[in-house]
Amino acid sequence: MAKILSVDEDVGILQSHYDHLEMIGHHDLVIATDPEETIEAIERWGDGINLIILDIMLPVGRMFNFEEANLGLTTGVLLLEQIQSRLPDIPIIVLTAIANEEVKKQILAHGIPEEYYLDKPVGPRDLLIKVQEALKGTKK
Q: For domain 4-134, is the CATH number 3.40.50.2300?
């Protein structure tokens, strides 16, 4: 069974991810609501994580300072860099509620395929299709 890390500050969205992933047999969902919890989860499960679903708009938290967040990088982009440095081969699906071409360029520049950059709200069926596609590409 695949281990999926879902990162979003909205607990309701995390619950929705869990409910929908459970319907297709993915019961092993790890959740994080901020950058610190995300890194803690990665340190705990490391290569056991098969896929990450990352909301790109997260609270700054303790991990990043306000100046970094004001350099035009969202907290999610900064966190994406941290994730990729620790787990470079794990597929990541990026979710965003902001229609901002600059943020999209930053995400794509980090190697996220455009088909894994999804604008919120994402319908459950669309998310499940992307999850299944991403997991097919992993060898774990």
A: yes
Chain center to CA of 50: 12
CA distance 129 to 47: 23
DSSP 122: P
Strands 51-55 and 29-32 turn out to be unpaired
Residue 15 identity (one-letter amino acid): Q
Per-residue pLDDT of the chain (140 residues; tens, 9 = 90+): 799 999 999 999 999 989 988 888 877 999 999 889 999 999 999 989 999 999 988 776 655 555 555 544 567 888 999 999 999 999 999 998 887 888 899 999 999 999 999 998 899 999 999 999 999 985 44
Q: What is the signed CA dihedral for 86, 67, 13, 18, rounded to 10 degrees?
A: 10
Q: What is the pTM of this model?
A: 0.88
Crossing angle of the two packed helices 124-136 and 11-23, in degrees rounded to 10: 70
Give the tokens for residue 26. Answer: 């993915």
Domain extents for the chain?
A: 4-134
Place of tokens 């900064």: 78
